[in-house]
Structures are given as structure tokens and as C-alpha cells.
Amino acid sequence: MTRRYWRKWPKAGPGARPMRFSLALAGAAIAMLALGGGARAAESGVTLSQPWMRIIIASRPAAGYFTLLNGGSTPRALVGAQSPACGMLMLHRSTSAGGIDRMEMVDRVAVPPHGSVTFEPGGYHLMCTAPTQDVTPGNSVPVTLKFADGGTLTARFPVRGVSGK
Length: 165
What we know:
Immunoglobulin-like, single chain, eleven-stranded mixed β-sheet, mainly beta, 1 helix
């Protein structure tokens, strides 16, 4: 009979725990650098990816887009957003029925467990009223998403022009 020995960490003295913590901290720092300055952000199992904001005319509202992925086993609900670059930032949804396009404010957007929701042109989006001068193509602006359970998630949204590029 062959015995197999599995050891997660080598035996070490009193310095082993700080070393493990340092390795974990270094790994987290490397991961944050790899994410590209806000291209992804996470909060309690929810990950935000592909954030961007579109402005068409400086004096008109801008729109924010992104994808939320709930990697957890409990549902989450997005209930608001804010940004210093917007006078007000609201959750909106565009719909089309019977040849009529509508846009309406929504109170919450459910993010199911192990599911995702995408904010994109023609669907859910953030409506940025009274955008500041920071909302200019080539810049990026901070946006904080608020969840029903009190959690928040902040990321930088690159600003693009009318074509989305």
C-alpha cells in the first residue's frame, strides 16, 4: 500500500502566517493591477465589467453601460447609482413595443444568483443628468453602484462619443 502525503504549506515557525498573508496581499495587488484601473470591480460576489459612458451632446444627458455578474448564491438588487460627474444618476430602461420606443426610470434591477444583467444601449442603462465637463470622450469618471443590502461597488467608466468608440 502506498501512502500519499499532502501538505498545503511547508512546516514553518512563527513567521509562516505573516508570510502567507503577505503572499495573499501580493496576489491581490497583482490582480488589481491586471484589471486595468477599474475595468472590473467586485463587491460581495458581484463583479462589474466593461463599464463605459456615452455622451452625445455636452448639454444633454449621458448614459452608462456595464455588465454585472452575481457569482454568489443569493440574489442581489441594484437600487441606485451616483457619480460626482452627474447632477443625478438614475437607473433607466428603454423598451420598444408596437413601434413605440419608451424610456422609464426603474427602482431596482435584480441580479440573480450565478446570473448576470447587462446595461446596454436599448435596454437597462444609467441616465446621467446634468453631466459635468469631466464627461468628455477620452476621460473616465467614477461611478458608485448601490445595492439593496447596503453594499456598494465603485468603478471608473471611460467616456466615449456618440458611436460608442
